[in-house]
Structures are given as C-alpha cells and as structure tokens.
C-alpha cells in the first residue's frame, strides 16, 4: 500500500474497491471501510462481478464482467477528463504521459466501456463524478485485479486513475493493494523473488550483486531466476531436479493441479518443510517438521509495510523446529560438503546464527529500506512502516509525498485485452475463483481449526438461479464443473451473488479445489496466473 | 475530534487544576489528568450513552449529579468525583446490579477480569439478601460455535450493541423490551448467525462482565491462569496484533488489545477463533524420509512414483540426506537445476535466510513464493 490503513478510517472521502472481497478476505480493513461509509459518510464504490458483502454497503456497485477492469477504469477516466474534473495541477507538476493517456481513454466513452464491461453507461458517469468530487480518495485492490493475463496493465490502470485525480502522496489517497498472506509483503521485501535481493535490489544490477557477493563471500548468479509457475513447469520438463518447498501447498494453490501433480512426481528430489502433511508434503522425498507462528520469534510485515514483532508463546510439538534453525543447519552441512566456497573474511558468510535478532542485524545492514528497523525499537513497542533508512527515522506511513521513486509519476496508457480463455459452445460459463471468510488459502490451517471447519465444512460453488435451472441443479445439490483441464464435484449454492453466465468457486478444499479447473495462462510480465477467468461447463453432480 | 481545536479548557477536578482539549467530556478531562472515575457502559472506542450511572460526579452550581461520560467539560467548572453523594449513588447502582446478578463468580469465565466484580469489591458492596426478583434465562442457547451468551449476567450496558454497530458495523445486537424485561437479542430475536453475525467476537471483547464469552475457552482460560503473549496474526496481510493466552504451554484463547497499532480491539473470526490448528494432532513432529532413500541414499537411481513409505527419522539423518542430495544435484547439474519456494507464512528473518540459502549456498536465483497465487 502506498498509504496506511488508518487513512481509510480517518481521511479518505471516497473509497473505490476493485477486485477485492474486502470484508471476507481482509475483514478488519473491511470493517474500517464500512465504518468510514456509515459513520463518516465517505463515498463507497465497489466494482466486482459478484454481489460481495461490501457491495451491500456501497453507494454504487459496478458489476463489470470478469476481465474487463481496464475498460471500466478507462471509461471512468474518460468521463473525468471529458468533464474536466482531473487534478490538472497535480498532472502538470508531478506526472508525465498525460497526452498519451488522454488519447487512449478517448476511445472509452461510457457506451463503449459499457458494452465491454456490461455496466450501465449511466453508472460509469455517476461513479466518475463521485470519485472526482470526493477527494482524497483511496483505491483498494487485491487479486481480482492482479490474477489476470492483463494483471500488470490492470494495476497500471488503477495507478492512472489515482494520478489523474491527484490521489497520490496525500493522506487518504493511494494505490493500495491488500496483500493476501500475513507476511507476503515481508517475503517479497526479503528477496523471496527471482529478480530481487532483499529491498528490491535487482540481481541483474552489477552494483547490487557486488554488495551481496562481498557480504556473503561467494560469486552470485547474474540471471533472474524462474517464477513459481515456471519452476513447476521446468520440474515437469525435467529441468528442475531438486525442489525445496517451505510452507506452501502448490497442490491446492497453483493453477491446473493435474499438471502440478505430474511435475512434482517427475521432480527428482522434493523437500517440503511444513507444519502439516499437506497434499504437497505427501509427495515429498523428505519432510521437515516446522514451527508454527506461535512457536517462534521474529517479525512480519503487513500490507501497509508495517513491521511488527511476533513472539514465541508455546513450545513446538515433538521435534518440530523453526525454519531459521533448519536452514542454518542445512546450510552448515552443505558448506562442509563443499557446495560453495566462501570468503571467510566476508562479514555475513557464516550460518552461525543463534537467534532471529542476529539475522535482523544482517537485514538492517544490507537492506536500505529496513536499515532502521532494529530489534530494540520493535521490542520497545514501536511498529515501523518502511522505508526506515536509519535508526532515528520514524517510518513512512505515506509514500510518494514529494516525488515518485522514478521522479515523475508516469501515466502508462493501456487498452482492454480480453482474458486468455473465453466461454464458447463447449464451455459456456465463466468461472472466477476466490476464498471464503472461514477458510484460508489451501485450508491447511483452517480445516484444522475445529469451529472454522464446522462453519464451512465443504466446497460450495455459487451458481445463478437461471444457470442452475437450465442444468437442473438444485440449491445444496451436487454440481459437476468441468474445464479443458479437469473437473470437480462440489455442492451448488444457487444465488444471485453471481450473475447469469458466471460461477464462483473457492480453492480451500483439496478434493474439489477450483484449481483443477483454472487456466495457467500467465501475465507475460508478472507471470501471475489467470485465476479469475476461465471457461467451464456445469452439470448435475 | 475537531482538529482545529486550539483553546484548551481549564477546570478544577477534586481541587486540582486540569486542562483538557476543547470538546472533552468531564470523564476525558479527568482521565487525562490521571483521575479515575468508575464506569461500566463507557468505553473509549465507543459513543457515550450515560446508561449505567456509575460515572456520576458532583459539579458545583449544577443541579443533581452529572454523568461524567456525557457532560462536556467547561471552563471554570468545579468537579468533585468523590463526593459522598456520588459515592453513595455508585454504591446504590452497584447494589441494584448485583440484586439481579447470579452469585456465580466462582464458576464464571470472567472471574478476575470483570469490571462489575472489581467495582463491587472497591465499593464494598455486599451480596444482596435473597428475595430480589432474578431473571432466569437459559444459558448458552445460541448455536454460534464461538460466542456464548448468559443473559442472566447481562447488565444492559449496551457495549456489545455499540461495538457491533460502531466497530464491526454489522448491527447484530439490540435490546428488546423495556425496563426489567429488557433483553439482549440478535436481529429480530434470531440466532446470531441468522442475524448476519460474522463471528468476529467484538461483542465479547467489549463485554465488561461475563454475559458474552468465548465458547472455545470455557473452563480453561480464566484471566489469572493465563500468560498473555503479544504477537501478530498468521492469516491475512492486515497485520492485526493480539494476545495469545497461554496456559500449560497451550494457546487457550486469543484476546484483543487496545494497543494493537493496526486493529485496536477488532479482530476477525479467523484471528480470534482460528488458533487451535497450532495444537492439532496432525502437526508434524519428526522429520520424514522415504524408506528407500535410507537404504540407497547416495544412489542416483530414479524411483518410480515414490512408492516407498515416509518413515520417521532423527534430524541428523534427514539433514545429512538433504544436504548430500542437494549438493550432488548442484555439482552434477548446476545450481539452476534446483528451485526454492519461500513462504509468505514465515518471518522476515526466515525469508531472508531462504534468500541467502538459495543464492549463496545453492547458487541460483530460482526463488519465489505464493505472492502471485
């Protein structure tokens, strides 16, 4: 997030949610949105194909078709510019590329945008004016924007809207992705990405490489690595021979699960480090038992870049160990076997860690945005939002207040492109996927939380009454859903939360995971799979 | 509060000069100066309703007692929070509350963490003699698996009603009837879940007594038996912090804290009630290795479909095996033949080590995690 969560409650005069089922997936942000709407009168616009909970609180619900986000956003911007409601001062002073944007959005008058998105042109007009008249406004998005073959252009389009309205660098504004996992922000920040060292220092940048080579005492590879979906593919082709998976269950969370299974079977050596014997761990050659969050010390970074302490509260069961212990033990043994030769003079070549604070010192010294996030400050009760360039720095609740990282904010005009797979005669419906409030991702934790499981014991597929009637499927009755890649059987929930032609399924339940159906087509740049749109057919289960 | 406030208000409380920001209530002015006024229906996160009358104070030149939580502080005001009249009134209110309260502190979930109990103790209110009319509600009749309700203990302060309305913004709770018959109900006297309850437990967190309590913790998590450990939730990326309540090395409850920088007292159903997976019997407790890898662990022969069982081994065996195998793959095929899935569930420190392990030890940039999934 460019801004802070408190901005939503306190500052934003409008809240635009697109591609985020906020009250179910980020419930505590969801209640802050509801509070801002109900108690402070902030305007709320929700763009989502489904009538999700937060849509019931909205001033306007724009039910655009899955995969038509850019057309919708361009339509909104078209109206804003046509009516002269853009923040021209901000555009002139802090941005570039406006003329190019103006040309592209010129094509998306509300009629054209309405045709592509299925949203009434009048609602596009209303929404555009509401956003323009209620500034500063925040834009919240999640995987509904990113999990498309047009994921990157979708995000750029969100940024365009906020630049156009001058909603960046100010309290209450911002382009605010709501991150899914508790520490997905931190995993990205700490170099858990194929192109970045910690702090988004590029592995292809010779200066950054030199810095880490000096710190760790080894020469480092200069080519970007593979992304997750590419790794699975390479394992299937026999190019990846060893796969080490920590705390993840690609056997439910990746697209096209039949393919994932084949790839993991083919992989010569699979190590899984987990707290439960997940579907993926069952396929492993070696399984390391790990500690849960309640059994270790360290830090997590939330969606607003806030770094907070987590604390060990209980012992781990049996011989389960913290991941840091496992990595250090393994690294030491491999070094002893001569896997790499380290310069013993390098300050951080060694793996002789005693406790997490020692690792944080290493992070402080190698990661400029975390330089001032010191253990003692966190212990003293502070929680700090990066960048924190030094120990006296108070943290950065709002990014881009003076200038953008690259100097001027750049409008990147983008056109609508259809999803990779659209309905046809054989597969006439669109499937979109997501999660429900009571479960979490592959369900490894929530299926084992007794009462969460009791609240939602099985997979439900949302189907509109018209589609259900056509296929002869009753509410609560079994439904079979098939795509070009696989099929699942689940229970039908006949509801007008979805529109005719659209069904929704979650991926919480291994046996009927929506990801047997989903399309592994990727956004060419971010390599994110198109979980939000694929073509399916339904019949009685 | 209005940000344009410039002029502080100067008043006198218990003979002490007190300065408070414009717009403060007497209660806020007093607490700001470290002067305690007892309350039950007041909570700093919620609007004030002046329902319980515990916060009554004497204000010079005002007729009768004033409720400190709803009376604005004014310049020159002279307040006495401990006047005999105020103290006697509080004592009377407490007696009235206890006259219709079950004498069950011995077996109450909130014993030791109960605002009514604390005030009865402080004001030395004796248990009323038998004979008063008592409510006789059936206890814990709602099927919600997380939140239990005992209306016999409800003091009708309305904190749950306001928490649901103002914090959760869900309006599940309300009061039915009036006077002695006033009764806390969900929706139109429905089961909570049918009244749109999201099972966030905010109502439990704000209840000052034992009327609403956590079903999963019954019998094990009284305040004086647990140690509270402040940490951050393991589910989504909002970063809510809370206290794990630990007893005998087990998490027995999660309680929220006003000091949480992101969420304050608010949590969601997963954060507050989704902790029991930590102690599930399915937890992995020993390293596991395929049996055939133990017999021919240096062999490069490809096994078909991992047909042998996973068997428990000690850490040394498992670590040595993986170390050797990964080292072999790197030396025969290069580091790029290995890939690492880091985890968005692990700490920053651990993820830093995954990155270091992949790049320094394995010598590849093939590291990613579920950020895109």
Write the layout of secondary structure elements.
The complex is a heterodimer of chains A (541) and B (373).
Chain A lengths: L4 H6 L3 E5 L3 H4 L1 H14 L2 E5 L12 E3 L6 H14 L5 H7 E2 L1 H8 L4 H8 L3 H13 L3 E5 L1 H4 L4 H14 L10 E3 L6 H6 L6 E2 L3 E2 L3 H11 L11 H9 L5 E5 L3 H4 L3 H10 L2 E6 L11 E4 L8 E4 L4 E5 L12 H14 L19 H11 L8 H5 L4 E2 L23 E2 L18 E6 L15 H6 L4 E4 L1 H7 L6 E5 L4 E8 L7 E5 L12 E4 L6 E2 L3 E7 L1
Parallel strand pairs in A: 1-2, 1-5, 2-3, 4-15, 5-6, 9-10, 10-11, 16-20, 17-19
Antiparallel strand pairs in A: 7-8, 12-13, 13-14, 16-23, 17-20, 18-19, 18-23, 21-22
Helix pairs in contact in A: 4-7, 4-8, 4-10, 7-8, 13-15
Chain B lengths: L8 E5 L2 E5 L5 H7 L23 E4 L6 E2 L10 E3 L3 H16 L15 H8 L24 E3 L9 H9 L5 E4 L6 E4 L15 H5 L5 E3 L12 E6 L8 E7 L2 E6 L13 H5 L14 E3 H5 L14 E3 L2 H19 L4 E4 L6 H15 L4 E2 L5
Parallel strand pairs in B: 1-5, 15-16
Antiparallel strand pairs in B: 1-2, 3-4, 3-5, 6-9, 7-8, 10-11, 11-12, 13-14
């Amino acid at each position: 997030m460019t801004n802070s969560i408190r901005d939503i409650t306190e500052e934003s005069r409008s809240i635009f949610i697109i591609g985020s089922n906020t009250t179910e997936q980020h419930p505590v942000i969801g209640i802050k949105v509801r509070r801002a709407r109900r108690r402070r009168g902030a305007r709320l616009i929700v763009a989502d194909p489904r009538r999700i909970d937060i849509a019931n609180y909205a001033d306007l619900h724009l039910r655009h078709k899955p995969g038509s986000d850019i057309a919708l956003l361009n339509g909104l911007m078209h109206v804003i510019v046509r009516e002269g409601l853009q923040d021209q001062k901000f555009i002139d002073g802090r941005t570039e590329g406006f003329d190019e944007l103006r040309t592209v959005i010129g094509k998306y008058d509300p009629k054209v945008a309405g045709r592509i998105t299925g949203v009434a042109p009048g609602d596009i007009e209303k929404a555009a004016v509401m956003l323009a008249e209620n500034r500063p406004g925040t834009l919240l998005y999640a995987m509904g924007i990113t999990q498309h073959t047009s994921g990157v252009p979708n995000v750029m389009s969100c940024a365009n809207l906020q630049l156009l309205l001058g909603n960046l660098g100010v309290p209450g504004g911002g382009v605010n992705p709501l991150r899914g996992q508790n520490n997905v922000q931190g995993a990205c920040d700490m170099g858990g990405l194929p192109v970045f060292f910690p702090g988004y220092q590029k592995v292809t940048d010779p200066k950054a490489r030199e810095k880490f080579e000096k710190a760790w005492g080894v020469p480092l590879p200069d080519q970007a690595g593979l992304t997750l979906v590419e790794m699975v593919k390479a394992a299937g082709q026999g190019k990846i021979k060893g796969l080490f998976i920590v705390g993840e269950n690609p056997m439910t969370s990746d697209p096209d699960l039949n393919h994932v299974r084949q790839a993991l079977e083919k992989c010569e050596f699979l190590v899984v480090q987990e707290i439960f014997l997940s579907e993926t761990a069952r396929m492993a050659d070696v399984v390391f038992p790990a500690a849960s969050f309640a059994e270790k010390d360290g830090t997590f970074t939330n969606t607003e870049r806030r770094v907070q302490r987590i604390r060990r509260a209980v012992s781990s069961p049996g011989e389960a160990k913290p991941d840091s212990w496992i990595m250090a033990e393994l690294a030491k043994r491999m070094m002893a076997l001569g896997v790499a030769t380290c310069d013993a003079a390098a300050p951080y070549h060694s793996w002789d860690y005693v406790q997490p604070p020692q690792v944080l010192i290493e992070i402080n010294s190698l990661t400029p945005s975390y330089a001032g996030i010191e253990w003692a400050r966190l212990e003293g009760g502070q929680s700090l939002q990066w960048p924190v360039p030094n120990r006296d720095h108070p943290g950065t609740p709002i990014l881009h207040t003076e200038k953008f990282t690259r100097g001027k904010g750049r409008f990147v005009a983008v056109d609508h492109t259809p999803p990779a797979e659209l309905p046809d005669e054989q597969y006439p419906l669109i499937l979109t996927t997501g999660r429900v409030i009571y479960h979490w991702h592959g369900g490894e934790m929530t299926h084992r939380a007794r009462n969460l499981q009791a609240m939602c014991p099985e997979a439900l597929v949302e189907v509109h009454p018209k589609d259900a009637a056509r296929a002869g499927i009753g509410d609560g009755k079994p439904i079979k859903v098939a795509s070009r890649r696989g099929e699942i059987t689940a229970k039908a929930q006949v509801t007008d939360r979805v529109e005719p032609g659209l069904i929704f399924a979650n991926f919480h339940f291994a046996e009927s995971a929506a990801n047997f159906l989903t399309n592994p087509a990727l956004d060419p740049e971010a390599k994110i799979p198109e979980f939000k749109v694929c073509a399916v057919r339904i019949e009685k289960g | 509060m209005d940000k344009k406030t410039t002029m502080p208000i100067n008043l006198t409380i218990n003979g002490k000069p007190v300065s408070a920001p414009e717009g403060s209530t007497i209660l806020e002015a007093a607490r700001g100066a470290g002067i305690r006024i007892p309350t039950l229906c007041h909570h700093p996160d919620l609007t004030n309703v002046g329902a319980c009358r515990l916060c009554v104070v004497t204000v010079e030149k005002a007729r009768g007692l004033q409720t400190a939580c709803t009376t604005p502080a004014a310049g020159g005001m002279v307040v006495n929070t401990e006047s005999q009249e105020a103290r006697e009134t509080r004592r009377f209110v407490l007696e009235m509350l206890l006259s219709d309260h079950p004498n069950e502190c011995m077996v109450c979930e909130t014993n030791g963490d109960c605002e009514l109990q604390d005030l009865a103790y402080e004001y030395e209110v004796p248990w009323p003699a038998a004979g008063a009319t008592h409510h006789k509600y059936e206890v814990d009749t709602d099927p919600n698996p997380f939140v239990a309700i005992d209306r016999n203990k409800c003091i009708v302060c309305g904190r749950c009603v306001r928490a649901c309305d103002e914090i959760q913004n869900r309006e599940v709770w309300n009061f039915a009837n009036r006077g002695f018959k006033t009764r806390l109900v969900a929706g139109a006297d429905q089961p909570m879940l049918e009244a749109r309850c999201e099972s966030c437990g905010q109502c439990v967190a704000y209840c000052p007594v034992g009327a609403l309590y956590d079903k999963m913790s019954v019998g094990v998590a009284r305040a004086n038996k647990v140690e509270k450990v402040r940490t951050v939730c393991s589910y989504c990326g909002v970063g809510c912090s809370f206290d794990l309540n630990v007893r005998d090395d087990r998490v027995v409850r999660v309680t929220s804290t006003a000091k949480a920088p992101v969420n304050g007292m608010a949590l969601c159903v997963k954060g507050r009630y989704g902790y029991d997976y930590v102690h599930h019997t399915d937890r992995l407790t020993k390293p596991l290795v395929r049996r055939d890898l133990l017999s021919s662990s240096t062999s490069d022969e490809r096994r078909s479909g991992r047909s042998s069982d996973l068997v428990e081994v000690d850490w040394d065996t498992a670590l040595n095996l993986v170390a050797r195998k990964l080292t072999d793959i790197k030396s025969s095929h290069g580091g790029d033949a290995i890939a690492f899935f880091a985890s968005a569930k692990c700490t920053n420190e651990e993820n830093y080590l995954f990155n270091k392990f992949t790049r320094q030890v394995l010598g590849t940039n093939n590291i990613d995690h579920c950020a895109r999934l």
